[in-house]
Every structure is written in structure tokens, then in C-alpha cells.
Amino acid sequence: MEPRFDDKPGLEVRATAAKILAAVVDKKISLDGMLDPAHGNPSYKALNDADRALTRAIVSATLRHLPRIEAIMSLLVTDPLPQGARALHHVLATAVAQILYLDTPSHAVVDLAVEQANRDPRNRRFSKLVNAVLRRLLREREEMLAAVQSVSPVPAWFFERLVTVYGREAADRMAEAQLTPAPIDLTVKADAELWAEKLGAKLLPTGSLRLAAFDGSVTALEGFAEGAWWVQDAAAALPAQLFGDLKGKRVADLCAAPGGKTAQLIAAGANVIAVEQSPNRAARLRENLTRLNLSAEVINGDLFEFRPEELLDGVLLDAPCSSTGTTRRHPDVLWTKGPADIAKLAEVQARMLRHAVTLVKPGGLIVFSNCSLDPLEGEQVVADLLAENEGLERVPVRKEDWPGLEEAISDLGEFRTTPAMLAATNAYSSGMDGFFAVVLRRR
Ligand SMILES: C[S@@+](CC[C@H](N)C(=O)[O-])C[C@H]1O[C@@H](n2cnc3c(N)ncnc32)[C@H](O)[C@@H]1O
């Protein structure tokens, strides 16, 4: 049983935030897993709702800004920290995040961080250092922020990839965009304009509704209980729309859960077979469809074993990926994934896509998508497949069909969205996930 620090308000939150940060950056454990109310980190589960929200905010802010926070720490700690002083790193990093990026009274953060160091045998000898470093940060806050402004806020490995693929200027815009948490986007079954008015939302060129700066519970909003809409990022809503008219068509969604795209396909009039390998996620998919009052044949199984009796009109493959396009929502991704994961996932996607194209009849469409920003997991997979398979052709997405989204459509007619797109005057209502989507046709 780990010690708890409930005797001093705020201390247990800081200790939990530091533990979770350690798990993400040192052990590559996903943040969602640790913040799961049922199966998550035990210290986190023991907190009340308000403290959980604060812990989540501290960890998220720390991960979002970590390269800049570390640059500030190296300016503030003049003698290098002892090798392996990771526990101290996490105490300092979370405190710097609270002071610079969260609305927490700064002196309280310093006192708590010093107390936190004092109570941990690994950090006790550094408690004076914690005090000195954080007090200096309070005094030199603006200078410190200015000094690290040119440091990219994403990890170096990822920033280098962005620069190589998109160029420096675009890479900078994407890295900056991921500093602001994503707004909430909704996909409606029908009557988007009506629902935009009812919910005070903005209708986006993707067809989605955007609730800017909304921080309540979506389940309390009008239309949730009756299943009129579901939460889905604007970029994630694009792939399922690329099939064109789906009325009466037989379509399989091969990687279906939690089901945002399955729901779109059904709402567009298709007869859908939804395949999902994970039992838990398949159960969530079923629950979501029940709430939305939409029905599909749900198969809990491996897509490689799925072979319909008759060839299909369409297949959607929204494949597992590194998720590097979702950092506004999942700021841990860039710390838990790396280049080796990208290469491995690209291979899995290529195998899945090769299988997917065998499931449609001649003339049938395959939409392949994922939420990675890396062309190895998108453009390259498709280029390789087209080079080896003459029975397939790309059906270009046309810019004139997507007014307002022209910059997201490449010269080859593929969707390539990034978090820097859909920019609005206010950062909190800007951006979309990084997504790749392409339409292929079987000749
Ligand atoms: C990116 S998510 C899909 C998101 C979903 N399309 C949506 O819009 O809600 C990928 C999904 O593929 C599932 N998956 C991974 N490998 C699979 C396989 N071999 N067969 C079927 N599903 C698989 C994962 O469990 C995960 O739920």
C-alpha cells in the first residue's frame, strides 16, 4: 500500500500527478489507461471528482509543454540534477506546469512541491533546491517563458519528422496547435443546421458541429439521451463521408469501435457489418449504437478472419495507428509512442488494407483512414499498395466538393488534415485532428 498525503490539501493530487507523469514518460503507459475510473492508477481512483480533474489538468499541461518546461528547468537548475533523479524531475516539472500554465496560486504550488519533496526519501535532500528553483521561477516567470519560446513544444523526434515531411513553418504551426486542448465536435444524424442553432454550436465545413470552449458534461446536452448526435472530431467525421451515396449499400467497417464512423455509415443509409477485435471495445460499440438507436451486425472478431458470403459494395478501414494526429486530446501520445511504433503500425496497416481490398466487388470502394500525421502510415501505405495491385485505383477527393477544406486535400486527391487547420480567431475553437483518408476503387 503506497503512503497517502491526505493530511494536507493538494498534496495527494500533486503526488498522484507526479506518479502518473512518471508512468507516461518513463514507462510509456497511456494516460487514458491510468485515468480510467474503473481500472486506472489506484491513487487516482482514490481521489474525489474535483481532485481527479485537477490531477488530469496538471499531467496534461505538463505533457503538452514538457520540452519547454524541461528547457526552463535546465535554466533554473544550474548544477545538473544527479543522473536518474527522475522523481525530482517529475516534482519540478509538474510544479512548473502549474505555475506557468494552470490557474493555480503560485505560492501554494511552491509550498506543496517543497513538502512533497520533503516527504519522499528519494527527494528529501533536494527540498531546498525545489524551493529555490520554484521561487526563482515566480520572480523570473516572463523572462523564462520568453527564453524558451523558440523551443518546440513537442518532443524532438516528432518535431524532426514534422519538419522533414511538412517543412519548418507548417511543423511549427502544428506543434503550437497541439498546445490548446481540442474543442468538442459533434456529428448529427440529421438536421445539422437545426442542431447547431439548438446547441449554440458552429457548423463546420466538414458537416460537424463545434461547441467551442465547452467544459460541462455533454451527456446533459439536449439531444444526447435521444441519440441525435455523438461526439466525434471534425477530421474523424470525414472518411465515412467519402463513399458518396450509401443508401441500401452493403458496407463493412473493419475497425469499428467505439463506432463514430459505423454510426455515420448507418445514418447514411448503409447496411453495415461492424467488425471489432477487442471484446471491451465491441461492447462499447454496441452500447453506443443502442443509445443512437442505430443498428448494425456487430462481429466481435479479427478482421483477417472476416470474409462475407458475398462481396461488399464498400469497406471502411479506419486502422489502428500511432495517433500522432490526436495530441490536442491525448498529450501523452508523443511520449508513449516513437518511430519504431510508427514503422510497426505501418506494416500492420498495409496487411489490413491488402485484406480489405479483397472484400469488395468490382467497382466497390475502400476508404482507408487513420489519425496519424506520419505519411509512413498513410500516403506511403497507399502508394505501395497501388504500385503492387493493378486492380485498384485511387478515386481523388475533389477540392470543389469540400469548400472550406481545400487545404486539407492533396494534389493526389487524398485527405491530409492537421491540427493547424480550421483555424479560427480563438485557439479554443480552432483545429482538427491530424487524419489521413483516401478512397480506392476495385476495377
Ligand atoms: C482507430 S480505432 C477505430 C475507431 C473507429 N473507427 C471509430 O471511428 O470510432 C481502431 C480499432 O481497430 C480495432 N482493431 C485492431 N486490430 C483489429 C483487428 N485485427 N480486427 C478488428 N479490429 C481490430 C481496435 O481494437 C480499435 O478499436
TrEMBL record:
CDD domains: AdoMet_MTases
Sequence positions that bind S-adenosyl-L-methionine: 255-261, 276, 302, 318
Keyword tags: Methyltransferase, RNA-binding, S-adenosyl-L-methionine, Transferase
EC number: 2.1.1.-
GO biological process terms held by the UniProt record: methylation
Species the sequence originates in: Rhizobium oryzicola
Domain SAM-dependent MTase RsmB/NOP-type, first and last residues per copy: 146-443
Annotated family: Belongs to the class I-like SAM-binding methyltransferase superfamily. RsmB/NOP family.
Alphabetized GO MF terms: methyltransferase activity
Protein name: RsmB/NOP family class I SAM-dependent RNA methyltransferase
One matching Pfam family: Methyltr_RsmB-F
Active-site residues per Swiss-Prot or TrEMBL entry: 371 (nucleophile)
UniProt superkingdom: Bacteria
Alphabetical list of InterPro entries matching this protein: MeTrfase_RsmB-F_NOP2_cat, MeTrfase_RsmB-F_NOP2_dom, NusB-like_sf, NusB_RsmB_TIM44, RCMT, SAM-dependent_MTases_sf
Membrane spanning residue stretches: none
Keyword check for Methyltransferase: yes
